[in-house]
Amino acid sequence: xxxxxxxxxxxxxxxxxxxxxxxxxxxxxxxxxxxxxxxxxxxxxxxxxxxxxxxxxxxxxxxxxxxxxxxxxxxxxxxxxxxxxxxxxxxxxxxxxxxxxxxxxxxxxxxxxxxxxxxxxxxxxxxxxxxxxxxxxxxxxxxxxxxxxxxxxxxxxxxxxxxxxxxxxxxxxxxxxxxxxxxxxxxxxxxxxxxxxxxxxxxxxxxxxxxxxxxxxxxxxxxxxxxxxxxxxxxxxx
Length: 238
Hints:
By secondary structure, the chain is an alpha/beta fold. The chain is 39% helix and 22% strand. The protein is built from 9 helices and 7 strands, in the order βαβαβααβαβαβαβαα. It has helices at 15-28, 50-58, 75-82, 89-100, 125-132, 146-159, 178-191, 208-214, 229-235, and strands spanning 3-8, 33-41, 62-69, 105-113, 136-140, 164-172, 195-200. It has a 7-stranded parallel β-sheet with strand order 3-2-4-1-5-6-7, with helices on both faces.
């Protein structure tokens, strides 16, 4: 797996922290890692973006942004309102392929969900993943409503003949409710994709050294970690 695309079922569900955890585990194993953020929205030129946050948490990784827009909107809308050029799927694919030639692993972190538009022609992260032929990791929320959103995302991947690498819960609550606990069993059932991890709520606020030391315990072996879905689910069985 040279390129891994990371998407989510929505915004603010832990995509960046999940990307950082995957990167940290790969770096710890001795792999060279690059993180590509095609479109960063809602951040001024002088502010740190998502790729910068991944580097802060994960350690020595190469980072690249293709475009940055100040308003916290979908990339196509943010580009249009800023009067600047949008990002095109082929540009994402070309940038990722170039990074892949120089790194062991390239992580491409999307903005929002899989079908959020990059441009007014309807180009999306899914289109970029298709051009790359890359698997897509889906970051989902833990609680009520996640089954529908996650299943729809995975169904769209398969409709496009893209490989769902699996699902990671981006923020596992300290005191999970009944829906969250049931979803540990239901997510892999409805998606027919493996559950590959669960990051504890607030993981991104940990000191970088602690984050790197603990990241492997949040991710399954398929992502280089030691987390076991069955054992985790049994701890929270309803």
